[in-house]
Design brief:
406 residues, alpha+beta, Alpha-Beta Plaits, DNA polymerase, domain 1, Dna Ligase, domain 1, 3 domains, five-stranded mixed beta sheet, five-stranded antiparallel beta sheet, 13 strands, globular
Length: 406
């Protein structure tokens, strides 16, 4: 073991092209096809992810759907399906938590695991990672890549070295040897603009950044500069924050940018309801209620308008949130085309400690904005979704004329 290593054993599990895998599980005949997730040709949007077959054709995350279509005209283009991805991500998290409670979600498709208490060496950490990869493959039909290292930074950097379905172990010495001559943009935390500033200052390689004096980096990049200098040396003492123990969120929200400007108010109503449904589900999953509903609308001319309403009591049901959001929308509606809709709820507290009901509401004594109308029905639907998946039961108003989900 490198004497500079911390003695910790940290794993980073990174699902390979997660959105693509989720779509292939739903439609197995798509397996092996070049897939692009993020939108359909002719629609506004960017590539969220692409299958390895599409990546071989030059498609990359972040590029426009139009550019991806030019590079891979034979690819299958699919819109994002957040409900499917959230459901699968939750199942992965449950699997990891059966191994240890020291699991920190890094994103919808990544999680750090502090294996220091169940593995005595990086080699044992690698064996644990292999076991988890095998279980994910057998039970969920997904592949994951793994990085194993003495801290979160090195585990993250290691996880991308052998994709898909690979494993890489790195000590601090391994990290230095593997990444010293890589460009600075290859370091976690360095984006394009930061890389450009570093390069203008003569810092082009990770080794250059590692040897740069901290005062110089602070003058160049502010407080972030010395942090990146430490990262370039493989130093990271940040802990794995166990799932559910991080700081309380101040709000819960979802936004949706429409593929085309929308003028149909019945479609806008359905979208607002769908967003309220997602927000409410997230709140109940965390056993939270909130007393302030926010709506954000971006019109076709890119003007953005925000409105909010504080309720008499904290709520967590779809219908209670929607009642307020739709009324706010009706009052702010200028009749123009809609480009983006966002719904969020703030003033969050634990469900068992709801705030007193004497809070005044913007809408006075209207009964629609008081007691929570979903407090009996939605716990039952939540239980069904937890067992059978988020798509097992849906509101009829979110179904099309042929009964399919919109």
């Amino acid at each position: 073991m490198d004497p500079r290593d911390s003695g910790r054993i940290i794993l980073l599990l990174d699902m390979d092209a997660f959105f693509v895998q989720a779509e292939v599980i739903a439609v197995p005949k798509l397996s092996g096809s070049p897939l692009v997730i993020g939108g359909t040709p002719g629609a506004r949007g960017t590539v969220a992810t692409a299958s390895y077959e599409a990546r071989a054709l030059g498609v990359r995350s972040g590029m426009s759907i139009g550019e991806a279509k030019r590079l891979a005209p034979q690819a299958v283009f699919l819109p994002c399906n957040p409900s499917r991805y959230f459901d699968l991500s939750a199942r992965i998290m449950k699997l990891l938590l059966r191994r240890t409670p020291l699991v920190e979600p890094a994103s919808i498709d990544e999680a750090f695991i502090d294996a220091s208490g169940i593995a005595r060496s990086l080699e044992e950490g690698e064996a644990l990672a292999a076991s988890i990869q095998d279980e994910i493959s057998r039970t969920l039909r997904l592949t994951a890549s793994a990085g194993i290292g003495p801290n979160k930074l090195i585990a993250k950097m290691a996880s991308v070295l052998q994709k898909p379905a690979g494993r890489t172990v790195l000590t601090r010495r391994d990290f230095d040897e593997r990444f010293a001559d890589e460009p600075v943009i290859a370091l976690v935390g360095v984006g394009k603009s930061t890389a450009a500033r570093l390069e203008r200052a003569g810092i082009r390689r990770i080794a250059d950044l590692a040897s740069a004096p901290a005062p110089f980096l602070r003058r160049l990049l502010g407080v972030w500069g010395p942090i990146l200098g430490r990262a370039a040396r493989g130093e990271d003492d940040s802990p794995v924050v166990p799932y559910g123990t991080g700081p309380d969120p101040k709000s819960v929200g979802h936004e949706y940018t429409l593929p085309r400007d929308e003028t149909d108010r019945s479609e806008a109503r359905r979208l607002i309801l769908a967003l309220c449904n997602e927000v409410a589900g997230d709140m109940r999953a965390e056993h939270r209620v909130g007393d302030t509903v926010h709506i954000k609308i971006r019109w076709g001319d890119f003007t953005t308008v925000l409105r909010q309403c504080r309720l008499r009591t904290a709520v967590s049901s779809t219908q209670a949130i929607f009642n307020v959001a739709w009324e706010l929308f009706r009052r702010m509606d200028c009749g123009g085309p809609i480009r983006m809709i966002g719904i969020s709820v703030s003033g969050l507290v634990q469900a068992e400690s709801q705030r007193p009901q004497q809070i005044e509401s913007l809408f006075g004594d209207d009964p629609r904005f008081g007691a929570d109308p979903g407090d009996k029905v939605e716990p039952v639907t939540d239980s069904l979704r937890a067992i059978y998946g988020r798509g097992v039961i849906r509101r009829a108003s979110l179904l099309g004329e042929n009964g399919k989900r919109r």
